[in-house]
Amino acid sequence: AEGTLSGSLDLPVLTGSLSARALVNDGTPLGSGDIRISGSPESLDLESSWMLKGNSIRFSGALERDDSTISGRLSSARLDQKETGVWVLLEPATFVVTPELLTVDESLWSNGDARLRLGQMIRSSESLATEIELTGAPLQWLEPYTPEEVAISGYVDSRLRVQQSDGEWSGRFEWLQRD
Asked: How far is CA 39 from CA 3, 61, 65, 69, 131, in A?
């Protein structure tokens, strides 16, 4: 790790980078990566690249802190996933964290003709609500998980809605398979 601190005590300016290799937490591998930051304690820009089990992610974004609220923006992201290929964030995604609530706005990801829409997620200590929609996903992505003698072709569109309130879960899953 390396970094600098400049500016005044009233308005410090931070720049830094951290590299981590083969991180493990309580026996669980967390991977290896790099994080770079710049800005002030109240407003940070960050870039990161991370690798875990043959998958990698690169992203950039920003964090803003105001009292007990943290707001963030994921400006760009690219996930190289070994089974499905490259997923790219098409539009920036934002989130807000308070002591009582986590809100993550909708985001849209692309992988060739496939699209993954992560609907707005709202999470409090008592409830959670979100929706995930996948369109144009090749069924060949499932081949590593099926017997060799099973031939898979076509595409799938699916939607998952999940809600949790006071410890009770409910949801709905839809699956449309096509050639």
From this structure: 12, 12, 12, 17, 34
- What b/e sequence results for 146-167 when a residue is b if at least 16 CB atoms lie within 10 Å of its CB, and e otherwise? eeeeeeeeebbbebeebebeee
pLDDT for residue 166: 87
The string of pLDDT tens digits covering residues 138-178 is 999 988 889 989 888 999 999 999 999 988 999 999 999 99
Distance from C-alpha of 130 to C-alpha of 149, rounded to nearest angstrom: 36
Q: What is the pLDDT of residue 78?
A: 98
DSSP state of 135: E
Residue 143 · residue 137 · CB < 8 Å: no
pTM of the shown model: 0.85
Cα 145 to chain centroid distance, Å, stands at: 23
Mean pLDDT, all residues of the chain: 92
User: If 0-12 CB within 10 Å is exposed, 13-18 middle and 19+ buried, where does residue 107 land?
Assistant: buried
Q: Which of these, 105, 87, 86, lies nearest to 97 by C-alpha position?
A: 105
CA distance linking residue 151 with residue 87, whole number of Å? 25
